[in-house]
Amino acid sequence: MRRILVTGGTGYIGSHAVVELMAAGHDVFVADNLCNSKLSVLDRVARISGRRPEFAQIDIRDRGALRKLFAAQSFDAVIHFAGLKAVGESVAKPLLYFDNNVSGSVALFECMQEAGIKTVVFSSSATVYGEPPSVQFREDFPTAPVNPYGRSKLMVEDVLRDVAKGDSEWRVALLRYFNPVGAHPSGLIGEDPNGVLNNLMPYMAQVASGKLKELSVFGNDYPTIDGTGVRDYIHVVDLARGHLAALSALGKQTGVLTVNLGAGRGYSVLEMVNAFSEACGKPVPYRIAGRRPGDLAEYFADPSLAHQLLGWRTQLGIDAMCGDTWRWQQWAAANAAELA
Ligand code: NAD
Ligand code: WQD
């Protein structure tokens, strides 16, 4: 068993990773500033896991709070989910994203180094690739992010590469997520987005539940299987398990691992709409709208390095992604007061 600090652990992916870490017997401590999540999620993590992780409300930019935490607690590793993730917001507020995601990560790594904690798993993103040479992305592709969010992710990757270059004791996994979707099969935790819904799956779920009128399909004139955008959707539980595999790999080696976490195949928007309609047992009303600026037609992961280096690959398919999302949507609708 290892003692793991999970930053951003009350968030969507972090909370699912906490469940998997505890199921694997690890001792988990969550630090989060709750800017995009609620503490109550840990009660539901406890209902799933049988115990509640320790928690401290900390902003990773607060070096004093981090030093106090590291003085009081000993950790073997950090899984670093804490960050802002909305591409559109990053364009409107670049300084917020660079301060939160980059300066915050530097503060965290600095305090980790002072405390002698030199193992970190970092939440990176396929957005670091920008518009690469082909639709199936490999880790050795050039990186050219096209928005401040993607640039903030690449900057943190570069910081960690330089830290590991300067101190060979560091063990770093840079995990480039594609499109995380779905929810824990219990239906008790899932994506609980604040504010504007940008992403396809949560938007579709709210259309199916009647909270929203219809889905706008952003373009059906792309050079893809049916003209709509194609993405590599990965079940959040598979994604969480990828972090345990990365932790285990870092136990055997120092240096930097850069790995795509994706299924290695894409689904179109209309394929997702059809799968979601199957899962919820009713049609998802949609209309064809114009393309969304900045969208690529199609991309998905080459996940072979994840399999080779981490012994990990996705296990959960589109039916589980949609069925688990729907179950969570129904639980959230029936327990809105708890989520308020
Ligand atoms: P999320 O917003 O649900 O979770 C992020 C958590 O970090 C939230 O609980 C938030 O309160 C916390 N946080 C943000 N800034 C903080 C700070 N300064 N100090 C402490 N806590 C802070 O998002 P998520 O979907 O779970 O994403 C987790 C990570 O994965 C993020 O770094 C995100 O960029 C990355 N990622 C997400 C996706 C995706 O589509 N969801 C894809 C690729 C990468
Ligand atoms: C998926 C597909 C849309 C909404 C984003 C971020 C990326 C990462 C994952 C953080 C596209 C289409 C969507 C809608 C639609 N996040 N769509 N109608 O843009 O692939 O990736 O989330 O790292 O950084 O960019 O995800 O879910 O927004 O879109 O037609 O209402 O669904 O055009 O083809 P995306 P998405």
Task: Throw out a few tags for this protein.
18% strand, globular, 7-stranded parallel beta sheet, binds UDP-4-deoxy-4-formamido-beta-L-arabinopyranose, 340 residues, alpha/beta, 12 helices, binds nicotinamide-adenine-dinucleotide, two-stranded parallel sheet
How many beta-strand runs? 15
Strand content: 15-25%
Helix content: 40-55%
Query: What is the alpha-carbon Rg in Å?
Result: 19 Å
Bound molecules: nicotinamide-adenine-dinucleotide, UDP-4-deoxy-4-formamido-beta-L-arabinopyranose
Task: Please describe what this structure looks like.
The protein is of the alpha/beta class and 340 residues long. The protein is built from twelve helices and 15 strands. The chain has helices at 12-23, 41-49, 63-72, 87-92, 94-114, 148-166, 200-208, 236-250, 269-280, 304-310, 318-334, 336-339, and strands at 3-7, 27-32, 54-57, 77-80, 119-125, 136-137, 171-177, 179-181, 215-218, 230-231, 233-235, 255-261, 267-268, 286-289, 300-301. The strands form five sheets. A seven-stranded parallel sheet has the order 3-2-1-4-5-7-12, sandwiched between helices. A two-stranded parallel sheet has the order 6-15. The longest helix has 21 residues, at 94-114. The radius of gyration is 19 Å and the shape is globular. The two termini are 35 Å apart. The mean pLDDT is 97. Bound molecules: nicotinamide-adenine-dinucleotide and UDP-4-deoxy-4-formamido-beta-L-arabinopyranose (WQD).
